[in-house]
Specification:
38% of the residues lie in helices and 17% in strands. With 328 residues, the chain is α/β, with parallel strands linked by helices. Bound molecules: ligand PBG.
């Protein structure tokens, strides 16, 4: 037995019960932190569960209300849309067509569910037959040619009534091009949430099944970032601030908490993170096997993102986490 320990500091004093612990808690999750992704697919009467993402579905527009009602039930009113068109081509023309899948979905939601704040993912990969995030010149993703298509896409989304656009293709200058393109048409008030710091990550695997957007050749390493780089990640965020982004994003989240934290210090804009598909699927799979407590690991993971500095968390867990928060 150690006797007469003269301990001045006993951190355990503040951990004695939940009443006290919640008084000194530094980070708290709320439903207002979350944006829920939705996959919208062309066609009728479709509700497909994505096999690698249990609980996440592709919906056709005529069945979207099933998902929207569930979200409203747990007070989630912010969504980001991904489209899966019926036809793909080299320039991803469905993405900027008046009758495109996103355009139809946005029109439906704004008309029938005006309580939602609707964000659109802006990229070509779900719409091109080659699956890359831009148009090709001799099998290379052509940066500047792609910018013109991104502008067409955001203008078309805006005409359909979208509230915010979120370019995710990692093209240089995409925020400048999109800001000018929107302003030229009078859409000054549509904010840009830029996927500023997006890494070439294996954690996107299940999403590519969900969005049917796997590249048909090569990979995305010539435009998405090298996971080894953090200084370059900060630079990407700062560039997008200069280009006029309203929110900058880090993606993925779980394996990049250091990047979130550093970018939070470096910029004065809200910082978002994307808790991506592979991060979701890993937790779901381990929970399904009974190896972890899925709900607790989910909440701890989301909390870690907020603690790292994220003001906004895009997550497939949004619905479940919001339901839990409401219960507590
Ligand atoms: C590209 C895009 C991707 C994701 C969101 N937008 C995939 C990619 O870069 O291949 C990934 C999201 C996820 O994994 O949950 N439009």
């Amino acid at each position: 037995m150690i006797k007469d320990l003269d301990l001045l500091y006993r951190p355990r004093r503040l951990r004695r019960n939940e009443n006290l612990r919640s008084l000194v808690r530094e980070t708290v999750l709320t439903v207002d932190d979350f944006i829920s992704p939705i996959f919208v697919i062309a066609g009728k009467n479709i509700k497909n569960e994505i096999s690698s993402m249990p609980g996440v579905h592709q919906y056709s527009v005529d069945r979207l209300s099933e998902e929207l009602d569930q979200l409203l039930n747990v007070n989630i009113t912010r969504i980001i849309l991904f489209g899966i068109p019926n036809e793909k081509d080299p320039t991803g023309s469905n993405s900027y067509s008046e009758l495109g899948i996103i355009q139809q979905a946005v029109q439906f939601i704004k008309k029938e569910y005006p309580q939602f704040y609707v964000i659109s993912d802006v990229c070509l990969c779900e719409y091109t037959d080659h699956g890359h995030c831009g148009v090709l010149t001799e099998n290379n993703v052509d940066n500047d040619a792609t910018l013109e298509y991104l502008v067409k896409q955001v203008v078309s989304h805006s005409q359909a009534g979208v509230d915010m656009v979120a370019p995710s293709g990692m093209m240089d200058g995409m925020v400048t091009a999109i800001r000018h393109g929107l302003d030229e048409k009078g859409y000054y008030d549509i904010p840009i949430m830029s996927y500023a710091t997006k890494y070439a990550s294996a954690f996107y695997g299940p999403f590519r099944e969900a969005a049917e957007s796997t590249p048909q050749f090569g990979d995305r390493k010539s435009y998405q970032m090298d996971p080894a780089n953090i200084r370059e990640g900060i630079k990407e965020a700062l560039l997008d601030v200069d280009e006029g982004a309203d929110i900058v994003m880090v993606k993925p989240a779980m394996a990049y908490l250091d990047v979130i934290s550093k970018i939070k210090e470096a910029v004065l804009l809200p910082v978002a993170c994307y808790n991506v598909s592979g991060e979701y699927s890993m937790i779901k799979a381990a929970a399904d096997k009974g190896w972890i407590d899925g709900e607790k690991v989910m909440m701890e993971t989301l909390l870690s993102m907020k603690r790292a500095g994220a003001d906004i968390i895009i997550t497939y867990f949004a619905k479940e986490a919001a339901a839990l928060l409401r219960k507590n």
